[in-house]
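Practice problem 4.
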């Protein structure tokens, strides 16, 4: 099918993967609705759209508020007449060991990364079902397959999205809708800088984990610097998931045998071996 002017929604577009994906799709003919949580971030997306020559409209949406989700989806469908694609990208990070995390920090993480993703998906599904076509692409992570030190909460939220994406694929296939998971490895985005998401307790020098957490963060930073995966790689995978006739269940940016030092420094060899043999790792881009 031709995709020129086809409406898609990308959540979490003020920075990083969401911004890159919105620009990539908008420059390739899709009519992109790019969401931001804060009104002040609208200008960031609009300037980027002008620079890329991308067809992008900015929509304010807060994943933690059901009324915001309902209003935004209604307005988008009213403008576009429907919605072909949803890219579930919005999310936050939370870094810190289990003992150093508060319930408030955990609730915000899961309300945003998991419950918010469920909410947006529920809101768009009726329109896709009626059209009997659609693609729901969820940005998960390698951290949704294997976990690492200091990311118990974040990885748990990504593990949840893996189950969400798999089950959703079974539920909606008969309606002509496909659910696809994108699993980036280590990508240098603002997630590692201004949006790092360190828990308050993780930075407390009195924490029993303070020194090892500090050392591990230094290892993570070095791995980010060595990584060759870029936001454009993720955007390209999303474009593929939207446009190929029969998308894979998963798109991984790098295969396990080529991850090399960046991931070996973060994940134990046993975990990498388990992922290498996993049948769910269906496509490498």
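Answer key:
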């Amino acid at each position: 099918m031709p995709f020129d002017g086809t409406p898609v929604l990308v959540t979490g577009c003020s920075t990083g993967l969401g911004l890159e994906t919105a620009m990539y799709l908008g420059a390739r003919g899709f009519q992109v609705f790019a969401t931001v949580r804060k009104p002040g971030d609208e200008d960031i997306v609009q300037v980027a759209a002008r620079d890329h020559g991308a067809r992008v409209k900015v929509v304010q949406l807060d994943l933690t508020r059901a009324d915001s989700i309902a209003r935004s989806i209604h307005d988008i469908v009213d403008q576009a007449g429907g919605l072909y694609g949803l890219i579930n990208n919005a999310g936050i990070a939370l870094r810190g060991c289990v003992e150093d995390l508060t319930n408030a920090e955990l609730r915000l993480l899961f309300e945003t990364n998991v419950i918010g993703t469920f909410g947006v998906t529920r809101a768009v599904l009726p329109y896709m079902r009626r059209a009997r076509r659609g693609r729901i692409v969820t940005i998960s992570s390698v951290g949704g397959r294997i976990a690492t030190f200091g990311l118990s909460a974040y990885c748990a939220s990504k593990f949840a999205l893996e189950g969400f994406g798999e089950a959703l694929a079974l539920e909606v296939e008969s309606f002509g809708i496909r659910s696809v998971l994108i699993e980036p490895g280590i990508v240098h985005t603002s997630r590692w800088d201004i949006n790092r998401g360190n828990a308050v307790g993780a930075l407390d020098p009195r924490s029993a984990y303070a020194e090892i957490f500090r050392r591990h963060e230094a290892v993570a930073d070095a791995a980010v610097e060595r990584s060759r995966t870029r936001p454009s790689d993720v955007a390209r995978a999303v474009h593929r998931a939207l446009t190929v006739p029969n998308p894979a269940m998963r798109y991984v940016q790098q295969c396990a045998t080529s991850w090399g030092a960046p991931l070996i420094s973060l994940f134990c060899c046993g975990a990498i071996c388990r992922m290498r043999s996993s049948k769910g790792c269906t496509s490498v881009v």
